[in-house]
Design a protein that fits this description.
Elements: H1 3-22, E1 27-39, H2 42-45, E2 49-59, E3 65-77, E4 87-100, E5 108-125, E6 130-147, E7 152-163, E8 169-180
């Protein structure tokens, strides 16, 4: 396994373990997916693609702030002149602070989040014998909404993610999904 991926995995697992020890409320687990829209220079090279997301949310008792650790895998196809000739794939994780915005609506809960982590990006163009892979620090900011009551909720969110490659690889994952668990929150 690539050395940077090992470090990224260790940091993610360490963050998860630390958060789990501090979280008295229990975890919420989620899965989702949606569109992956390239941004910046990346949008000149690749088309909109798809992504999948797994996440674990930890609430902090008596606080609107929480912690989230998530993993994302996504893929895009190249634009002309390399249309249909290879693709770009990314896999990585982010640890984020989440502010659950207090609103009077019981079923609709908006939030904003920001955090950092690591991503591995792989680009292939078989006709040119291009097969590159690199792992770099990434940061992301975004907003979303959780809808529902009880142990099962749905969510929709958009984020801006920048992976610190040269030039940086920027994309916007638009995600819908479902959250499970967590029980009742203390007010």
């Amino acid at each position: 396994m690539n050395r940077v991926l090992q470090v990224a995995l260790a940091v993610t697992l360490g963050s998860l373990a630390g958060v789990a020890a501090a979280a008295a409320q229990g975890a919420r687990f989620g899965v989702g997916g949606g569109l992956l829209s390239p941004s910046g220079d990346f949008k000149n090279l690749d088309k909109t693609g798809w992504h999948g997301l797994v996440r674990v949310d930890f609430s902090i008792p008596m606080s609107p702030v929480g912690i989230r650790v998530d993993g994302l895998y996504g893929q895009t196809s190249h634009k002309a002149p390399y249309d249909g000739d290879g693709n770009s794939k990314g896999i990585g994780g982010l640890a984020s602070l989440v502010w659950n915005i207090p609103v009077p609506a019981l079923m609709v809960k908006p939030y904003v989040l920001a955090g950092g982590g690591f991503f591995n990006l792989k680009t292939t163009i078989p006709s040119l014998s291009v097969d590159t892979s690199e792992s770099k620090f990434a940061y992301g900011v975004g907003a979303g909404v959780t809808i529902g009551l009880g142990p099962v909720n749905f969510f929709a969110e958009g984020r801006y993610v920048s992976v610190q490659t040269d030039p940086s690889t920027k994309f916007i994952p638009l995600t819908v999904g479902v959250l499970f668990g967590g029980g009742k929150k203390k007010k």
